[in-house]
């Protein structure tokens, strides 16, 4: 860098420009940073409120379905024909299975969600079932004879689609005389998770039931084909959101990734009546999309503001500094002139000397 350029950079106007730029830039940067941070926090909070609302609505719908299954199975236990058949097993070994099947089939008409009803003895032996292939399907799913109340245990139904399996005891004279098991259509669950209203292009709901191996996904998944009752999240993946959910850990999760290794915002819920977990999530980039646009706008505005400040400052500094510089230059000129006059003889004195010499 030449000396002249260095002098220009270190001149008083340049120093004034640097001071103005720094003084204006720091507050503007601070305001921009605070504004962007506030906007980001507001966007995250808004996204979580939306996810919480969707999760709560979906959990409420699932609870209603589970409650409905319980009510349906309990109503079937009060059927007098089935109760009479169970109470007379010891006296009448040869049960009229056709009558029982007819009775079960008629009970199917009371709910459009019912896909099968089965009647079992206390030892688990099947007395009657609307679906003759049900026992084989139950065994294929690892289900043994009914021995306890179960609610909405998901399995593959006769039509190949997921169905909810529930059991209730038939109580006669204070004793368990047998068991009623029902299967109900689970398509409302699939319809619910396939409704992405409010979730945007990256939002998704995952529902799983707890098993010994981990969490078994129940309905379809948005970004994974053939997931229903096929995808198992292992229990060893203890920090997976769905594993946390089936273990009763609920909350909001901001710094996490999903099965696609995408950063997401997520909330989860636990349904104790069925040991189900629910995760509702959306990509973090989608939630902060508006913030990215806002940040770009703020930065452009900041650049424009700084440019205007510098231009205005330059004009003001020039308007002030130009007269000052002229005064300084004049002062220097005058100062230099006085010194010369002090050593220069005047014209009068010079002529006087010459006249004296002539004489």
The helix fraction, in percent, is 40-55%
What's the helix count? 10
Mean pLDDT: 82
Strand order of the largest sheet: 8-7-6-11-10-9
Describe the main β-sheet briefly.
6 strands, antiparallel
Looking at the structure, the CATH topology of the domain at 39-65 and 189-289 is: Beta-Lactamase
Order of helices and strands: HHHHEEHEEEHEEEHEEEHHH
State the shape: rod-shaped
What's the total count of β strands? Answer: 11
Q: Report how far apart the termini are.
A: 66 Å
**CATH architecture grouping of the domain at 39-65 and 189-289:** 2-Layer Sandwich
CATH class of the domain at 39-65 and 189-289: Alpha Beta
Spatial extent as radius of gyration:
43 Å
Q: What is the SS-derived class? A: alpha+beta
Q: Which residue ranges are poorly predicted, with pLDDT under 50 across at least 5 consecutive positions? A: 5-10, 339-344, 346-359
Q: How much strand content do the residues show? A: 15-25%
3D structure, described in words:
The chain is α+β, with helices and mostly antiparallel strands. Among the domains are: 39-65 and 189-289, Beta-Lactamase; 70-185, Beta-Lactamase, CATH 3.30.450.20. Helices cover 51% and strands 22% of the residues. It contains ten helices and eleven strands. It has helices at 3-9, 12-77, 80-87, 97-108, 134-140, 187-193, 241-246, 284-287, 289-343, 347-358, and strands at residues 114-121, 126-129, 150-156, 162-172, 175-185, 204-210, 214-217, 232-234, 251-257, 263-271, 276-283. It has a six-stranded antiparallel β-sheet with strand order 8-7-6-11-10-9. The chain has a five-stranded antiparallel β-sheet with strand order 2-1-5-4-3, with helices on both faces. The chain starts with a helix and ends with a helix. The model is unreliable at 5-10, 339-344 and 346-359 (pLDDT under 50).
